[in-house]
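Hi there. Long-time user, first ticket. I'm pasting a complex I've been working with (about 720 residues overall). I'd like to know whether the download I got is complete or cut off, because the file seemed smaller than I expected. Thanks.
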Amino acid sequence: MTYREALKQGIREALHADGRVFLIGEDVGRYGGAFAVSKGLLQEFGEDRIMDVPLSESGFVGAGIGAAIAGMKPIVELMTVNFSLLAMDQIVNNAATLLHMSGGQINVPVVIRIGCGIGRQLAAQHSHSWEPLFAHIPGLIVLSVGTHEDARYMLAEALKSPDPVIVFEYTSMLNSEKEIPANITQVDISKTKVRRVGKDISLITYGTGVYKCMDAANELAAMGIDVEVVDLRVLRPLDEETILASVSKTHRALIVEDAWKSVSISSEISARIMEKIFYDLDAPVLRLSGVEVPIPYPVHLEEASVPQKNDIINAVKKILNHD
Amino acid sequence: MIEFVMPSLGADMEDGILVEWHKKKGDAIKRGDIIADVETQKGLIEIEVFEDGVIEKLLIEPDTKVPVGTPLALINPTNKKAETIISTDAQKEASHPIAEKEITPTLNAVGVNKKIKISPLAKRVATENNINFSTLLGSGENGAITKEDVEKAIAQKQKSLANHEASGTTTEDKTKNASNSIRAAVAAAMSKSNREIPHYYLEKTIDMTKALAWMNRANKERSVKQRLLPAALLIKAVAISLREVPELNAIWDNGLQIKSDINIGFVVSLRGGGIIVPAIHAANLKTIDEIMSMLNDIIPRAKALKLRSSELSDSSITITSIGEGGADSVYGIIYPPQVAIIGFGNISEQPFAENGMLGIHPLVHVTLAADHRAIDGLTGSRFLTVLNTHLQNPESL
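Hi, the file is complete. Here it is re-exported in full:
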């Protein structure tokens, strides 16, 4: 199953499961979604459930928030994360704060899906890893869909949340094929997931980093290095317990993300490791992040701007002083 | 490349003087070869290597005093899967010829003018285990000391803790110094033991009639040189009994760690005072004749302070024997981290009741001092009973 198909099945299931659920966003209906994730859903569910909207992020995200307050379960699609800036006021000043401002009276159970990431030659204005911007904001739950099983099952859990959930989906992964294990029928969005158990080092990552780290771990295993891969999955609130337990066990950590390095998810995790388990560390925590430039258009430069499998392998060998 | 380092031959050994190299660059060596003589604070010890290979480089010139853990030589292993692979940086540093470099790797290792790079975890583990990490060579990135490096040092320390050791040198002064430092080593170990180990004591009187009769018969078939002494018999009996009560053949390190090899430390008194405890390795697998010939070889060398490093390592239990004409009982002090010491008093003729009859029998008072943190009296008692059974069946030894 492709990542795209997994996302679509998740949306379809949610629409079937609860009459209050509806999908709203630019081109989600007649066009079938900018990335064809919602193709065919308009025909199946009708205009009341699959709503095309004018190109006004602030407007339709605000509409989603209002519907959520009124008792609906909206799924708002933001085509790409660069457009999310136009809706930032609604997300930060309304969705994230209303529960607090109303003295706990008003929940905002909106789910906002955002396409994001680097790797499709979409150039600087359309290639962003802005998970850190959202993970900075109290009141939001921020999820990162790094695997096909999460693409398939995260949405259902997000819709159960009484508070606003931001779901980051990665456009570069849409066509990738992976089998979802048959025994998985739901996922826990409150927990970070250890995707591979190892004892020598913890690779902590999210989003597009998950499969890269898994591939790197397989190659490193052939060299005798036993890597643990930790898929953060939930970027806010961080599942500190799982992260710290892993690093306490392996005593070493490499954090991998596409986002720019300064003031990023990796900055936060690195700091928490240092604050909480300094005396369990056997090597400095290292980070592999995006190069701090506007993401270039040429494919070789685009590839060079974010961590790749070989960068991960080399960094692990460096930390372990392995030759 | 393997580093051959200044070994630790005792918990309290901090440094040693490399007196003489027995090998030179390019020499092929194999496990067990004597590679150098090292004078420790307790005397001259012949140092063996534990890997097969070729000497790549000698790093330290004779008559140099260096801390424990300092690389002395680089060995190119025959077996490529070397245990200690040193970092390229450290190698670069360490492999500078002595003549070309004023500051030897030793000084770097001590870190006189250099910050020591050690991970927080490694530092914590080192501090908890009383390891002086300033002498360790790091295997981590840029030569940082890692947990693994510290764990290796701990293992080395535990190994050597299991032994007292000493050796002598040529001049009288040096012998006197050696004897003083042996005194100090004994003092440190025994104080630690008495301070930390809750000893309990058991005693059993064992009839030696059958054992001595068997030995006398056996000796008739042996030349004077090969004749057995009761000590060999007792060591073998203890070794066999430990197989049945393995809890005593162990060390205490935050818990009981039973040892699979039965390596018996045998206390040898030195003329100038002090004791030294060479190990009889795998005593349960040796014949009484083999144990006897080991004693004949090792005791004079121990008294002359001429032991090899391997003979001073790995004891898992200690025997102290008073010998002929001495005190009737000896209550030992356990050598940490071992958990038991077995004492044999003088074998003497005494009245002994057996089957309702009083007779005169050669008896020995056997004592057991054991660590009550690790083992209980019932176990100790069982051991003495098993030991008695074996000594009543000397043929089976």
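A couple of notes from our side: The longest strand of chain A covers residues 253-260. Chain A is about 40% helix and 20% strand.
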